[in-house]
Amino acid sequence: MKRLAVLLLFLAASASAITSVDPAAVSAAAEYSARYHGVSFLAIQDRRTLLEQNAKTPHKIYSGTKAFWNLAALAAVEDSLLNLDERVGDTITSWRSDPRKAQVTIRQLLDFDSGLEPQFFLHETQSGDRDAAAMRARMVAEPGKAFIYGPAALQVFHQALKGKLRGDSPIHYLERRVLHRLGLRSQRYLADPAGNPLLATGWILTARQWAKLGQLVLANGAPVVSRNSLAQCWRGTTANRAFSLGWWNNRAAPNGREFDFEQMLIPKWQNQDWRDACLCRDAPSDLVACIGSQGQRLYVIPSLQLIVVRQGNGGSFSDAHFLRLLLGRERR
């Protein structure tokens, strides 16, 4: 009984240690979101809903799709199907004859620092065989040296995962190993004529559904992967310390270079500068986010046990301003 009492006291102390977000600040953030073409908003702290607006209406999450496929990659590591640091050429034999492609690892494909050209035309549904086109893509930088955000690298990963599964489809693996455990169903895969899904974008989720991914982060990967596996998403790379495995991080705060990540992705990769990048200098450094085009956001702040989903239809939405409003830290 004494041990149980101590445990209960510890849990109570842990719960009280979480700083409650000011309801007025949450409302201010939601109002700002709506003013800049926001269509849904959901804030959950310590499993308690703080504010919910249109959170059960499906909406495109665009690049928010990427994080789910990266979870499938982490699950495949735990299932001993692959190793993130193995060479892609171990599975895709045609890459062995190219000196630079032969050096590329699966992790580099997922972190977008493989050196492969982006091939944005692969977003088109009628683009032919996406995987074949991606595997033929040119190497435009040395592996590990440049952050090149685009669909080609993910389509090469799809082909590598397909080879590892030996008969099972990556979509079936993703659904069985990731989605069903999160309580999600089949998604919009935007398959090409060859049947290859588009890994970079395409899914449509409600804010409530997307928040399940945030709950996984707060649960340290459960019920899909282990804490150690999930931690790989926060590592960053030499080419871009603010990105790994489908997730953006705020590790460079409070002294990092604050700018709009979505806007930085618009210029060609050669003109992007990700040095010391952070989403918001006034937000906790453990903030992580999924970022989708036109203002789609899933924010998770583990130190606050906070999940916030914001979905929108474009507009001049600012992550930094939104987060300052949300946390009551707006600069006057």
Structural features, described:
It is a single chain. This protein is of the alpha+beta class and 332 residues long. Helices cover 33% and strands 14% of the residues. It is built from 11 helices and 11 strands. It has helices at 2-16, 23-35, 65-78, 106-111, 130-135, 151-165, 170-182, 207-218, 227-230, 261-264, 319-326, and strands at residues 38-45, 48-53, 59-60, 204-205, 243-244, 247-249, 257-258, 277-278, 288-292, 296-301, 306-312. The strands form 3 sheets. It has a 7-stranded antiparallel β-sheet with strand order 2-1-11-10-9-6-5, with helices on both faces. A two-stranded antiparallel ribbon has the order 3-4. Helix 2 packs antiparallel against helix 11 and helix 3 crosses helix 7. The longest helix has 15 residues, at 2-16.
Can you tag this structure with a few keywords?
332 residues, alpha+beta, 7-stranded antiparallel beta sheet, two-stranded antiparallel sheet, 11 helices, 14% strand, globular
